[in-house]
Design a protein that fits this description.
Chains A, B: It catalyses: uridine(1498) in 16S rRNA + S-adenosyl-L-methionine = N(3)-methyluridine(1498) in 16S rRNA + S-adenosyl-L-homocysteine + H(+). The structure is a homodimer. With about 280 residues, the first copy, chain A, is of the alpha/beta class. The first copy, chain A, has two domains: about 70 residues, Beta Barrel (Ribosomal Protein L25, Chain P); about 160 residues, SPOUT methyltransferase, trefoil knot domain (Alpha/beta knot), CATH 3.40.1280. Chain A contains nine helices and 13 strands. In chain A, strands 6, 7, 8, 9, 10, 11, 12 and 13 form an eight-stranded parallel beta sheet that branches. In chain A, strands 1-3-4-5-2 form a five-stranded mixed beta sheet. In chain A, strand 7, helix 3 and strand 8 form a beta-alpha-beta unit. In chain A, helix 2 runs parallel beside helix 3. The longest helix of chain A has 16 residues. The first copy, chain A, is elongated and about 60 Å long. Chains A and B meet through strand 11, helix 5 and helix 9 of A and strand 11, helix 5 and helix 9 of B.
Chain lengths: ~280, ~280
């Protein structure tokens, strides 16, 4: 048995219990040829629903690995219910956002097209791949959902009424972000764990969030980050008109879009998410 | 006069008042050939001490630009007194840290060599160039100081007694970061604006921080981020033994070193820095 730290792999198949599990294609190639693992080496598997399982390689072929799944090492548990909507930017920075917000625990990535969005097309498969890789490396038990890009108006029209929308506005008229995040907590608004009309919620997320594990979560939030150059005035007025919208400011310096996304999510986690004392 | 948004340039020379100012070398090349500006176009200049000044190009030569500095558009003002010490990582990620922590308002970047630091050499000139570029773009009035790399033991031995050290520990035994940051504020410890024995403080920073503008600043802090793989146990014990050390945790996921640096600094700014309601 190898002394090397186990590789973690996200699999898109059920992990119902001990038994045999097969890897094929790119995952088999990655395990055998990139990570140079072989018979007797251990892996950790997770699928976003069934916790984390220890597995041992029992056989390898050219593009196939056979695993014996032995025992569950971590149970699935509730994760913070925070979405992040952002205007896609050029490729390297969008890769970066996908990786970093996954590490920082975002539940759902929502590319949103605004008037000043310069990205001509959004590669959601690439964003998903970046999210999977980050989830594998950061010990996370889920992979965030990656949405197809939507126009800002569509995002706002479909915004769930019981989900707060933290609007990171470049205009400095918003509330300081931490003040805004602590206010609802202080006034003890009822926690919301059901998105109501949001039929698009991914099956993997809803399945994992049974009522027994969501009880400690604060409530449902989304963060909205603008494009470089900001939202225009019409867009800003529409965002502010959303029922749960809370305009906030991220200080006096002009942040790049990727910096703003990371900063806002980190502060949210520290105040209301699973970095906070009482979550 | 051009309608284009003025370029911001950091200059390392005094800006005592209206008059003539010359640019040479790379900066002249950048203005003329990269940004394609010419006679009549406006620039904004800052040097970290004298505020921001509007200037107009009055003449250009092959590697020289002559400017008429006309009026001060922003006064110099106090900035949060927060340092960030981090183990350098591979080149692209160190570039990224230098850019992002500049945007996020760090006053001083301190590369620190730990037992598990893998970077064989640290290019501080490159870090400074990244910091200058980020400062120019984010509307900041200063460029953070970039230190030469030091060993962890030397950093800790010289740590000012009146400066808190927020130790971002991968071990989950630390206090949740926001709890730790709000505690000293809540208990109203006296604000500290003088580092005492820290003779290495940069002239540009001390010159700008006159007593009249530091009064609103909370106190002096430094954030310490470990290498990928973490500090070893001996190092962790030494850090915790520093008088002002506060070990904190950044949640249950394993963060990359660059993610941890950004997240910790953003949360610090939101709680105690110039993103907070009362600063």
């Amino acid at each position: 048995m190898s002394e090397t730290a186990p590789i973690r792999l996200f699999v898109d198949t059920p992990l119902p219990g001990p038994g045999t599990h097969g890897l094929t294609g790119d995952q088999a190639h990655y395990v055998i040829h990139v990570m140079r693992r072989g018979t007797g080496d251990r892996l950790a598997l997770f699928n976003g629903r069934d916790g984390e399982w220890l597995a041992e390689i029992t056989a390898t072929a050219k593009r196939a690995v056979t695993l014996a799944v032995t025992r569950r090492t971590r149970p699935q548990k509730a994760e913070p219910d925070v979405w992040i909507a952002f205007a896609p930017i050029k490729k390297a920075r969008t890769d970066f956002i996908a990786q970093k917000v996954t590490e920082l625990g975002a539940a759902r990535l929502m590319p949103v097209m605004t008037r000043r969005t310069v990205a001509d097309r959004v590669n959601t498969a690439r964003m998903h791949a970046n999210a999977v890789e980050a989830a594998e490396q950061c010990e996370r038990l889920t992979v965030p959902r990656v949405d197809a890009p939507v126009k800002l108006d569509a995002l706002l029209a479909a915004w769930p009424r019981d989900r707060r929308l933290l609007f990171c506005d470049e205009d400095l008229t918003g509330t300081p972000i931490l003040t805004a995040l602590m206010a609802p907590k202080a006034t003890a608004l009822p926690a919301v764990t059901d998105d109501g009309g949001d039929a698009g919620e991914s099956a993997s997320v809803t399945t994992s969030l049974t009522s027994s594990v969501t009880s400690s979560m604060t409530s449902s939030w989304g963060l909205l980050i603008g494009p470089e150059g900001g939202f225009d005035d019409t867009e800003r007025a529409r965002i502010r008109a959303v029922a749960g919208a809370i305009p906030v400011t991220l200080g006096p310096r002009l942040l790049r879009a990727d910096t703003a996304a990371l900063a806002a999510l980190a502060i949210w986690q520290a105040a209301l998410g699973d970095w906070a004392a009482d979550n």
